[in-house]
From TrEMBL:
This is Cysteine--tRNA ligase. Keywords: Aminoacyl-tRNA synthetase, ATP-binding, Cytoplasm, Ligase, Metal-binding, Nucleotide-binding, Protein biosynthesis, Zinc. Belongs to the class-I aminoacyl-tRNA synthetase family. It is an enzyme of class 6 (ligase). Monomer. The gene is cysS. Zn(2+) binds at C29, C209, H234, E238. It catalyses: tRNA(Cys) + L-cysteine + ATP = L-cysteinyl-tRNA(Cys) + AMP + diphosphate.
Amino acid sequence: MSLRVYNTLSGKKEEFVPLEPGKVRMYVCGVTVYDYCHIGHARANIVFDVIYRYLQYAGYEVTYVRNYTDVDDKIINRANERGISSRELAEEFIKAFDEDMEALGLAKPTFEPRATEYIPQIIELVERLIDKGLAYEAGGDVYYRVRKFPGYLKLSGRNMEEMQAGARIAPGEQKEDPMDFALWKAAKPGEPSWESPWGPGRPGWHIECSAMSSSLLGDTFDIHGGGRDLIFPHHENEIAQSEGVTGKPFARYWIHNGFVNVNQEKMSKSLGNFFTIREILRQYDPEILRFFILTAHYRSPIDFSDQNLKEAKAGLTRFYEALAAADDTLRRHPLPEKAICPQITDAEREVYDKIEHLDEFFAAAMDDDFNTAAAIGHLFEAVRGINRLIGEARFDECPLSLQVIADGARKLRELGGVLGLFGSDPADWLERQKASGLQAVDYTPEQIEALIAERSRARAERDFVRADEIRDELAAAGIELLDSKEGTTWRLK
């Protein structure tokens, strides 16, 4: 199966065919550095980090560009509030962003340009737009003539006339049309500025990304990414600027991740449900946050809540418990020279097959528009298989099981690495989570026993999905199940 991606531009999944065989050029809009990053930033950056990793895993040579917007109204306003320069503020929050991304296990992009490093390229791009009649100077500002670009709104699918009805020209603006947007802004007293043919000023937000992406990746490149909130106006305006100058397609595949809700409400400072990455990581291991984000498809909305993070912790714990058990088993039972099995049970054969083909199942899920949720589902199947082989412990009769356990643990680590997961020593990771002492939902002993009984019935009926759901539910509440030949008991973690 070849890689297929959902292209926002066409509104459908398409086969991914890069411009240059074996090579991928990808640009993802980074942050405006005026504050600490929040859970929405975490999702966007983790999503594209996994896309970057998977493309490399699939054999592509990837040039990945993620920028910093280090000059902007928000940066200037925040710097003025604090009585420091815009440059000082930007440096502070670039450093904070880098620290947050390192904590979340992100791989470094190939290039991390800053907008202020590309002022000459930005000015040149604006001049070319003016020469083509697509932009005009007005009082030291330069605006883009939106109605002169026939493809405007082709990415967002919005209606120009409906938008025109609500558009207004703000006081001090000298636009020809309310829909026009700023390419260059004349300097105001105390603001950072650069010399230009239109007087001292600074770039508008949208032109920065057009200049940086074309400088590093060329006029046309393979993937442009970002959050859904950037489709309009930012990405729409990038297309107008870039294609207006070159007459060529700007980016061939547009990939956008879904929104993050908090307790089923839109995240907002005014609602008091706004969480920075740093606040979350004071309570949860960074890998738990990463795992939580990847258990949903990147285009779907995701609901951030304390309960959902606890469930993610329980799910991730199952992986580390399986890896720890596999490591321990292989220490106690060295791999035989000849891994054979005179008589294989049906259950063992099922496990063997799943682990043998795990790479294929994983790749098939990821090739379907980077479906990390489905990929993790296949990894869970391997965990169940490893646990089953360890639980049955027929190593003297069937030493092949030891080889399958070893292969399963190796593949979990390798494929988990593509997702940025399972990189810690299992024993150390489990010990850290135990020490964190995070408890969750309260259950009465009667409710716990009832769930254990339901789980036993599910296992007897080979409904392992439901059995695992019950185990995860209790684990998220800080309740550990202990299985033995005599039955199942429980204890608080």
